[in-house]
């Protein structure tokens, strides 16, 4: 039987990329009393839970991995953009090399945590878990990621549906056989695009319910021969060094020219080259005013429009998937990467419903299917909810008993005043708690492993400095948090990002405060600002 009141120096929540990076870095610095509590049954975070059909990472495998030599020198991805299955194989490999699980308890859900700050108290965290245990630790590190809390929209009658309802982030373990079936996908974000690409080819009939068109870009997928895999692997040390120097942690750098500084011919050739390159290059290596000037942005949109509309044969579907007027500035909301997404709508078995058209909103789910406001009923056997996550904040506020030193829960605090952190790494009222890949860090605007490595290094250096200087704890001041948030908002307001209803801005969840949840200044600036603070604990109370 597990000990009822275990105690560690450092407790981490979550065993995805951040938890593993932190644990490995802590071990390297001699911290042996570390434990990870992970609610899932294996390592991998979102990659463990996202098993929907067609699931694939939308970052090139070469940069979407840890820069740990003993790990990367003994593994290579077989495709440019690896499948979720191969990412799970990668995590199994990480386990074989680093023996992570010896410090992990799987199937353990943290339900609450509180730091006893009183002078007569222990000045430690008391962490509650669903199995009834209370764990004590000096440092608590949240590695819960951005997408721990799935979002299910409140659709009347959903529970009355007689067929199967599956959320992309909680897919039935045995999969869903849709052969000969009538199926629907609600949502056209990254998950929806990938499910649609798979199901269109397998199901008897697929109905896609789209609210906002996805300005999806070509993935330009490639299979790697063993020779190419070897070449990619040999180049990794350079790749890892380079990714830390760019704004996003991807290798692409913005073109210093502005959109209209160059001739129309040159511009067209540049757009064409980036489109052919695939992935985020179209934005990240685009002209420098792409995300700051609406006319420039429209020029990039028009190029995408021309390319995309040429692939869709039905004029009605063409206008819904790639409308002449942009739904939002290109790049202000996350574009997915597609392989043959738009071609699926040329198939006779694929219907498209524009939820923004009068009468076409979803009225209710009936036992036999989905009814739209105009009374049309779409008969269905399976409904896929690809409706995303209460991103970033939701991963923390879903821990019901996570509360500050005064006993107020984080969920209450942030519901009232919006999110607040210092550096995206710490939070007032939560002494000695650190956040990784979380609210107000580079998170969703970065290549995960790249920003995680910067934050993990900072967190471990902060813990070492606390130990070396004999401090009990550190805690950010209210003023420091306010200044950090103001900095984020100031940079955000210089861009077109607020003009899109995106999960970057918390705008995908009804009732959630609309505010920027990521640091938009880029990795080099972020790292520099965080490192400077560490020199003298600027913005922290030290006890
Ligand atoms: O979620 P999303 P996701 N009625 O929030 C729609 C990462 N990821 O799971 O755009 C009808 O992007 C919503 O519509 P709208 C990646 O970072 C990565 O797809 O809000 N529709 C939208 O179309 C990604 O960005 C990978 O108008 C409703 C969709 O549901 C992030 O996770 C794979 C609705 C939600 O899209 C999230 O992606 C998967 C409603 N009531 C995910 N509510 C890879 O790396 C919401 N929608 C491959």
UniProtKB/TrEMBL annotation:
<keyword id="KW-0274">FAD</keyword>
<dbReference type="InterPro" id="IPR036188">
    <property type="entry name" value="FAD/NAD-bd_sf"/>
</dbReference>
<protein>
    <recommendedName>
        <fullName>FAD/NAD(P)-binding domain-containing protein</fullName>
    </recommendedName>
</protein>
<comment type="similarity">
    <text>Belongs to the FAD-binding monooxygenase family.</text>
</comment>
<keyword id="KW-0521">NADP</keyword>
<dbReference type="InterPro" id="IPR020946">
    <property type="entry name" value="Flavin_mOase-like"/>
</dbReference>
<keyword id="KW-0560">Oxidoreductase</keyword>
<keyword id="KW-0285">Flavoprotein</keyword>
<dbReference type="Pfam" id="PF00743">
    <property type="entry name" value="FMO-like"/>
</dbReference>
<dbReference type="InterPro" id="IPR050775">
    <property type="entry name" value="FAD-binding_Monooxygenases"/>
</dbReference>
<keyword id="KW-0503">Monooxygenase</keyword>
